[in-house]
């Protein structure tokens, strides 16, 4: 969502409104700050559930041995690792992130897991993916879409690089689908999460932003509509953990 003020295009950065052309650098600074503690914080914040959510995404990928996948905003490489196991040594996975520190962390993790022969890395902007059209069987993005400046542009870019019959999978925090959980989630996000960020990563502000960014992200139906508008077909979503996260699937037919 953007707005205009004094001829400057604004966009959200958490609950703040900032000039649109500043958002990428602000988000990059957040992930520069949290990169070293990213995996520990994921485990603590989700009580380890993020691993189950990511396994579900990989299971929905439809990938077969020898195929090609793209992991956008790959972070520390959890989804990339799962995709690599699906495509096998004759397949290929391209791992991308706009943040150098996160991309390096993901590369080190995959190398340590023995994944070296069928994986490539690219520092790339999700809104303008530097790949040819119609080359990937599957494109994934896990907990990255909400941080992008222009979600529509990114979805369009992801659709462009998909082969006909290929699918995109979007794993993202979403809106809990019953009231009591929603209230608990609010309390946890805004009272507990920044304190954990301060305790474990010495960075309360970044985790305050991450909590706010979740609230600004489109809910399940809004994101499904956005995907349809960008040309994806047979769009659907799965609510996990009561809708705390959702997995959206769309196809290029």
List keywords for this structure.
10 strands, 253 residues, 7-stranded mixed beta sheet, 44% helix, Rossmann fold, 3-stranded antiparallel beta sheet, alpha/beta
Structure characterization notes:
The protein has 253 residues and is α/β, with parallel strands linked by helices. The chain has a single domain, classed as Vaccinia Virus protein VP39 (Rossmann fold, 3-Layer(aba) Sandwich). The chain has helices at 23-34, 38-46, 49-59, 78-87, 100-112, 151-161, 179-201, 204-216, 220-229, and strands spanning 2-5, 8-13, 16-19, 68-72, 92-97, 119-123, 136-142, 162-173, 233-240, 245-251.
Summarize the helices and strands and which ones pair or pack:
Elements: E1 2-5, E2 8-13, E3 16-19, H1 23-34, H2 38-46, H3 49-59, E4 68-72, H4 78-87, E5 92-97, H5 100-112, E6 119-123, E7 136-142, H6 151-161, E8 162-173, H7 179-201, H8 204-216, H9 220-229, E9 233-240, E10 245-251
Helix pairs in contact: 2-7, 3-4, 7-8
How would you summarize this macromolecular structure in one to three sentences?
With 253 residues, this protein is α/β, with parallel strands linked by helices. It is 44% helix and 25% strand.
Tally of discrete structural domains: 1
Beta-strand fraction estimate: 25-35%
In which range does the helix fraction lie? 40-55%
Order of helices and strands: EEEHHHEHEHEEHEHHHEE
């Amino acid at each position: 969502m953007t707005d205009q003020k004094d001829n400057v295009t604004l966009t959200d950065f958490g609950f703040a409104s900032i000039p649109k052309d500043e958002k990428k650098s602000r988000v990059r600074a957040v992930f520069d700050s949290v990169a070293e503690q990213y995996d520990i914080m994921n485990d603590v914040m989700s009580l380890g559930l993020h691993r189950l959510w990511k396994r579900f995404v990989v299971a929905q990928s439809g990938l077969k041995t020898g195929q090609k996948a793209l992991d956008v905003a790959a972070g520390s490489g959890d989804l990339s690792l799962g995709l690599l196991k699906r495509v096998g040594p004759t397949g290929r996975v391209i791992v991308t992130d706009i943040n150098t520190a996160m991309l390096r962390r993901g590369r080190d993790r995959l190398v340590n897991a023995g994944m070296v022969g069928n994986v490539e890395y690219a520092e790339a902007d999700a809104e303008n993916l530097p790949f040819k059209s119609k080359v990937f069987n599957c494109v994934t993005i896990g907990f990255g879409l909400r941080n992008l400046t222009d979600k529509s542009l990114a979805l369009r870019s992801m659709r462009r690089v998909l082969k006909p019959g290929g699918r995109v999978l979007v794993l993202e925090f979403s809106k809990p689908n019953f009231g009591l959980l929603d209230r608990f989630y609010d309390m946890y996000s805004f009272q507990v999460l920044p304190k954990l960020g301060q305790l474990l990563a010495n960075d309360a502000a970044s985790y305050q932003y991450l909590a706010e960014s979740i609230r600004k992200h489109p809910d399940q139906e809004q994101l499904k509509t956005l995907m349809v508008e960008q040309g994806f077909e047979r769009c659907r979503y799965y609510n996990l953990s009561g809708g705390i996260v959702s997995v959206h699937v769309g196809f290029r037919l």
